[in-house]
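User: structure tokens for this one?
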Amino acid sequence: MAAQKEKLVLKAEKINKFFYSPLEFHALKDITVEIGEGEFVTLIGKSGCGKSTLLYILSTMDTQYKGDLYIKEELLTGKEANFLAHFRNAHIGFVFQFHYLLPEFSVLQNVMLPALKLGLYTRAEIEERAYTKLALLGVKEQALKRASQLSGGQQQRVAIARALINDPAVIMGDEPTGNLDSNNTRIVFDIFKELTSEYKQTIIAVTHDDEFARNADRIIEMLDGRIISAG
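Assistant:
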């Protein structure tokens, strides 16, 4: 059952996206979507349908589109790059197919980085927050190891802890289990479910994994640049 949309976290209105090289291509067509606090939403569809393109617009990484995007009731369309970079760090967490941890840094240092950049807490407070997130993800005991010493599944859990460090309004996942075996996929899925149900974390994830998608709160299915089903 989908979470009640008592509090809207994200709203996109009439999003259109064009690519102009080598030929003009209308990639996203009048996309309108609303996502509430505590929803676990998956974006599905065949390769080339526009789901990753949409995710990058929703995450403010791609600003070349027509339409309006709101996160936490703030209109983000048309804002300058520096503003958006700060907004992303403060309010959006990212989990990709590959963990993108810095291998020469410790697990703890990797998780602390976004909070150090944000600058809202002291270093001691950030370290304490990082340990709390690592404990939540079941990898606290790995905190002082180098990221390169961890297994793939552990590294992805550390990446989720890093995405959570600033208590974001929404986590965006681009194939977050695409590089994991079935056991670690289940672990990551269970973590996402716990984050949404217990902590009211909003999650939007692009996936090709049918089982992963089917067990989320809501599925948004795309075809040829349009939403054909929104759960």
